[in-house]
Amino acid sequence: MTASGPDPLAEGYPTSLGISTPTAIRLLNQDLAEELMGRVGFGALAFWLLARRRPTPSEVRVFEAVLVALADHGFTPTAIAARMTYLSAPDALQGAVAAGLLGGGARYLGVTEDAARFLADAIGPSDSLPDDAAGWDALARDVLGAGRAAGGYVPGLGHPVHKTVDPRTPRLIAIAREESTYGPHLALFEAIGRIHPEVLGRTLPLNGAGVCGAALADLGLPVDLLRGVALLARTAGLLGQLAEERARPVAGQMYAEIDGRAREVPLDPR
C-alpha cells in the first residue's frame, strides 16, 4: 500500500507494448508470430507503436509517404557523419548509424517536429478553427506577423536546394487529400505558403520536412515524438549510405581533401 492507495507496481511493471514468455512473444497485445508477422507492415507497426492504436489503411499510406520523403537526400551532414564514422570504425556499424542520427536537429530532420509544434500552437483549440481558405489566410497572416515582430523564424519555410518548389510538398498534400487525412495543420501550412510573401517581403518554398510535420500532426500523432519519425526514416537512408560506402567508398577521399586543404592561421585569442 502507498499513502494514496494500492501500489500500482505491486504486481509488476505494466506494459502493453511487448513481453516475452518461454513459448510466445506479445507485442501491442498481439501474438507477434501469429498475429503480426506477415500480416502487418513495418510502417503500420511503427504507427501503431507511436499512436498506441492501429492505423487505418489511409493513415498508413500517408505515414509511409512521410517515411519515404524523409529517408535520404544525398550527401547531407547526417550522411557525411555516418560515412566518416564508418571510415574510422568499420567494425561498429551501429556507431556510424548513431553518428548520422545524432546530427538530426534544428537544421536537419528536426524541422518536422518544429513545424508541427509551430502549427499546433497557432491552431489552438479545435473548436475555433477557420471554416474556409480566407479564414486560414487570416490566421496565417496573424501568426506570421506575430512571429516577425518577435524576431522568430517559421519552421517549414525555405530550402537550401529547392528554391521555388520542394517536390515533396505538393505530392504529400495530394496524398493526404486522396486519403481524407488532410486537416487543420496542412490547411494552415498551405495558408502560410500563400500569405508569407506579403508579410515577410520574399517568397520561399514550403519545404518537405515542414509538410511532413503538418501531415503527421493531422494524423493525430504526438507532436513531441515527431522528430523520432524523421529519425526512423533517416535510419533507412543511413543504412543505404553505408551500404554504398562499402561498395563505392568516398569517405576516405573526403577526409583526404579536407586534410590536404588545412592551413595554419594565427591563434585567435578571443
Tell me about this structure.
- The protein contains 12 helices and 3 strands; from the N terminus they run βββαααααααααααα.
- The chain is mostly helical and 270 residues long.
- Among the domains are: 23-55, no CATH class; 111-225, Cytochrome P450-Terp, domain 2 (Cytochrome p450-Terp, domain 2).
- α3 (57-70) crosses α11 (226-247).
- The radius of gyration is 22 Å and the shape is globular.
- The protein starts with 17 loop residues before the first strand and ends in a 10-residue tail after the last helix.
* pLDDT averaged residue by residue: 92
DSSP helix count?
12
Distance between the termini: 60 Å
Strand content: under 5%
CATH topology of the domain at 111-225: Cytochrome p450-Terp, domain 2
General shape: globular
CATH superfamily of the domain at 111-225: Cytochrome P450-Terp, domain 2
According to CATH, what is the class of the domain at 111-225? Mainly Alpha
The ordered H/E elements are EEEHHHHHHHHHHHH
> What structural class do you assign from the helix and strand content?
mainly alpha
Compute the gyration radius: what is it?
22 Å
By DSSP, the count of extended strands is 3
The assigned CATH architecture of the domain at 111-225 is Orthogonal Bundle
Lateral arrangement of strands in the main beta sheet: 1-2-3
What percent of the residues sit in helical stretches (DSSP H or I)?
55-70%
Low-confidence blocks of residues: none
Major sheet attributes: 3 strands, antiparallel
